[in-house]
Write a structure and sequence with these properties.
Number of strands: 10
Strand content: 15-25%
CATH superfamily of one domain: Thiolase/Chalcone synthase
Largest sheet: 10 strands, mixed
Distance between the termini: 17 Å
CATH topology of one domain: Peroxisomal Thiolase, Chain A, domain 1
CATH architecture of one domain: 3-Layer(aba) Sandwich
Radius of gyration: 20 Å
Shape: globular
CATH class of one domain: Alpha Beta
Order of helices and strands: EEHEHEHEHHHHHEHEHEHHHEE
Number of helices: 13
Length: 381
């Protein structure tokens, strides 16, 4: 049976909107992790068969196939192609899936999966601005309107709907957010992320964690909606970052003398309610576990993207997963969410945490625009 191995995983530190990375061109962000990935693994860059890059806002400096632009900006062989994909927030997790599927199918042996998002330069929503300027009620077309009506579809409304359905109070959400910051601050202080980060622009640590935040400070923030429970404190941060992983076949491992660190055990992707939008990680996790023949208790570490606090909270409630094992070093509420790069960032964190703790299985999942979710199970070697 064919296997797909992770032989390298690296990321930039995740920067804040006004932080050290705010002026770095997205192609240079991507180039940085690509060069570091090749250097750390010792792989022959000319042997890479494709570069698959997740990026959500593919306009301006992130347009014209940023996968190819970043690879060439890194000074790497121009014989290697690149393709940029968009599965919303799960874009670089889907890049990992596509890379693994190429290897598992036997049609490729060495593939890079990466992610880039420069939210300080290319703001969230940039890719829909043209439609809005032309008076198109994005994302609706006639077929959509007939099916779902002309109601608001947004991640913010989805988060409110989830909090209401699962009965989470504002205090519940803020307690979760506080824990995320505390875990992140502890991990940064202990150096847990140092091995996985490639410093850039003088930045070597994630910028977003707020070790001095308190319940009182969060309680003073205004809710995003009148009578709502979601505030900026319980949402992921606007961020800047890039990530890259090298996926190899068994043949490539032998031929290029690479060291496998984990195998891609199981891949799953699913659709879910596009109005709630953010509930997909629940069925995606169930699908992945069923396909893997594993139970929730078999997983040693979970990475569940903290787009909003209700997402991992509802996920843990419905799957029975332990929150102690979930985002053990903090999540996107504290560490940020550079959209298209986040899937690779989380997988890089997951791999290194399994190595640090000696765990066997890790599961990653994240909610995605349109009501979708990827779930990936890896097994440490």
């Amino acid at each position: 049976m064919a296997e797909a191995y992770i032989v390298g995983a690296v990321r930039t530190p995740v920067g804040t909107k006004k932080g050290a990375l705010k002026d770095v061109h997205p192609a240079d962000l991507g180039a940085h992790v690509l060069k570091e990935l090749i250097n750390r693994t010792g792989a022959d860059p000319a042997a890479v068969e494709d570069v698959i890059t997740g990026c959500v806002m593919q306009v301006g400096p992130q347009s014209l196939d940023i996968a190819r632009t970043a690879w060439l900006s890194a000074g790497l062989p121009d014989t290697v192609p690149g393709v940029t994909i968009d599965r919303q927030c799960g874009s670089s997790q889907q890049a990992i899936h596509f890379a693994a599927q190429g290897v598992l199918s036997g049609t490729q042996d060495l593939v890079v999966a990466s992610g880039i998002e420069q939210m300080a330069i290319v703001p969230m929503g940039s890719s829909v601005a043209m439609a809005m300027e032309k008076g198109m009620p994005f994302p609706y077309g006639e077929g959509w309107a007939e099916r779902y009506g002309m109601q608001e579809i947004s991640q913010f409304r989805g988060a409110e709907l989830m909090a209401e359905k699962w009965g989470f109070t504002r205090e519940d959400l803020e307690k979760f957010a506080l824990e995320s910051h505390q875990r992140a601050a502890k991990a940064i202080e202990a150096g847990y992320f140092d091995r996985e980060i490639a410093p850039i622009a003088g930045l070597s640590k994630d910028e977003g964690a707020r070790p001095d935040t308190t319940m009182e400070k969060m309680a003073g923030l205004k809710t995003l909606r009148e009578d709502g429970v979601i505030t900026a404190a319980v949402a992921s941060q606007i961020s800047v970052g890039a990530s890259a992983l090298l996926i190899a076949s068994e043949e490539a491992v032998k031929r290029h003398n690479l060291t496998p660190r984990a195998r891609i055990h199981t891949l799953a992707v699913c659709g879910s309610d596009p109005v709630y939008m953010l509930t997909g990680p629940i069925p995606a996790t169930e699908k992945a576990l069923d396909r893997a023949g594993l139970k929730i208790g078999d997983i040693d570490v979970f990475e569940v993207n903290e787009a909003f606090a209700p997402v991992p909270m509802a996920w843990a409630h419905d799957t029975g997963a332990s929150l102690d094992k979930t985002n053990p070093n903090g999540g996107a509420i504290a560490l940020g969410h550079p959209l298209g790069a986040t899937g690779g960032v989380l997988m890089t964190k997951l791999l290194h945490e399994l190595e640090r703790t000696g765990g066997r299985y890790g599961l990653q999942t994240m909610c995605e625009g349109g009501g979708q979710a990827n779930a990936t199970i890896i097994e440490r070697i």
